[in-house]
Amino acid sequence: MQLRYSFRLYPSAGQRMSLARAFGCARVVFNDALRVREEARVAGLGLVSSAELSRSLTAAKRTPERVWLGEVSSVVLQQSLRDLDTAYRNFFDGLKGKRPQMGAPRFKSKRDSRQSIRFTANAGWRITPGGKLRLPKVGDVCVRWSRALPSTPSTVTVVKDSAGRHFASFVVETGASEVLPEATPEIGIDLGLGHFAVMSDGRKIDSPRFLRRAEKKLKKAQRDLSRKTKGSSNRGKAREKVARAHARVADVRREFHHRLSTQLIRENQAIAVEDLAVKGLARTRLAKSVHDAGWSAFVNMLEYKAARYGRTLVKIGRFEPTSQVCCACGVKDGPKPLNVRIWTCGACGSVLDRDINAAVNVAKAAGLAVTACGAQVRPGLVPAQRRETGTHPKRPTRPVWEQTGIPGH
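Given the sequence above, the corresponding structure tokens read:
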């Protein structure tokens, strides 16, 4: 399977200018090609082929208006055309029902929050013996290697985010050698807002609420931005300050998701989660809390880590009545208001915690052999059995340069 490994870049002032030039050239080529195809569509002509666009790009480099396109790597410009082809393919596949629908390709702007360029293997980029990333017509850029690359990367994408930070994203192939030893526990997870995750074995993971905790600083930064004159350099600095504040929130949330998902994958052989309607919930009064939790990103991490390490992830339908069914006897007791967190089953008399009961039912709906009922708060007619989970393995203590396999360190 293919995975992306992202590392922070620290380019010099001159390298920043070279990267900005490459971002701008890639954006111009994308917009020119999109304009040609849109004009052909309006005129009733067929879709302009990629070969014709590539020839037009080569001819444009010889004109006085576009001669500066030759100042950047030609691979960056060709990959920009490939990105346009991918955007059109995704759009048409959405119309055919092969994938979720998405909008038609649109023009890029220099004010977009994300700028990126891509170098393939034939571009001549490489990792130097000193651990730097050598990019054509940019130079040797300092990289902070935070972990080892499992194999030789095929492409590298240089990304600049809204906070002005640069990243190198490598695409690598990973094999089946990373399959973890088989584990016995199987677990169901109920995702929520009061607690981020409630496990079928009775554990509850508190919701960190990163955005809510950072709201005071975010308000101050946003207020300072609103007072700056539009178009001034001070407004640009204030805008970057707001972007950095939001980036810090996103980074700590992503770190929390990675740590929790890795722990769950290492400790359990099979995991069951509910397929939540995040888009629908994001249109309610709970929108900010839903986005702050980041359920979709967490489930996506569980999905690719399960495939990578030989675990099983099962998603159940969002319409399963997990909160209405007693996990001890299976009797459906009907819907309950959200303020009801503990309830007593009228059939068997078990006293149930709403969230743990739902987590056990999630596991049962997925066909996992989770002992019922871990959802009991105090002893009822059916005693609750719990399994002990293993500890999170320690991270390797080898130096970063030894892990990356880069010579010279």
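The first strand starts at residue 2 and ends at 10. Try to locate this feature in the token string yourself.
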